[in-house]
Amino acid sequence: MTVITHARRKSRLATMIDSAGGISVGVALTRARANIAALRDRGLEEVTRHVDALAAIEQPADPEARIRTLQQIYRSANHVIDAAAPFNLEEICAVAISLCDVVDRVSGEAAFDWRILEVHIKSLRLLNALPPDAVAERAEVTAHLSRMVAKKLGQTG
């Protein structure tokens, strides 16, 4: 049996908290929130860029292009998750995760309904365009998407 070990690095935050005269957890969290807030605009631009990249993807004509396209969709959806998660964009993350799950599920299938992917991408565009206070509308979009995925693939999304 092979054992793989990783050299664990102590984070700067942990070092500051643990050191004598360091900062308190409350101060560290306040600073972290301020740092994340400062990056919000850039993060939202990244979400928009990757959602637009997803929207530009067209259904491939041949099986080889299909594999590459599904990989591209998966990568872009992961980028959406990475960019949206720090800013608590739960609905966008949930739809992007569902999109990744669908890509995983259909990757081995010879034929599937491409519209399932298109609906996910359109849902991402809609959620990204909705104002933050449109809570009911966001919930409705994700609920409809979940029902569609359950109907088409027999799973919840």
Characterise this structure.
The protein has seven helices and no strands. The chain is mainly alpha-helical. The longest helix has 22 residues. The radius of gyration is 20 Å and the shape is globular.
Descriptors for this entry?
single chain, 157 residues, mainly alpha, 7 helices, globular
Low-pLDDT windows of residues: none
Q: What is the first-to-last residue Cα distance?
A: 38 Å
Strand content: under 5%
| Rg | 20 Å
Given helix and strand content, the structural type is: mainly alpha
Order of helices and strands: HHHHHHH
Chain-averaged pLDDT? 87
| Helical content class | over 70%
- Largest sheet features: none
Structure annotation, total helices? 7
Count of distinct strands: 0
Shape: globular
Give a short synopsis of this structure.
The protein is mostly helical.
List the helices and strands and how they pair.
Elements: H1 12-18, H2 25-38, H3 40-55, H4 63-84, H5 90-106, H6 115-129, H7 135-153
Helix pairs in contact: 3-4, 3-6, 4-5, 5-6, 5-7, 6-7
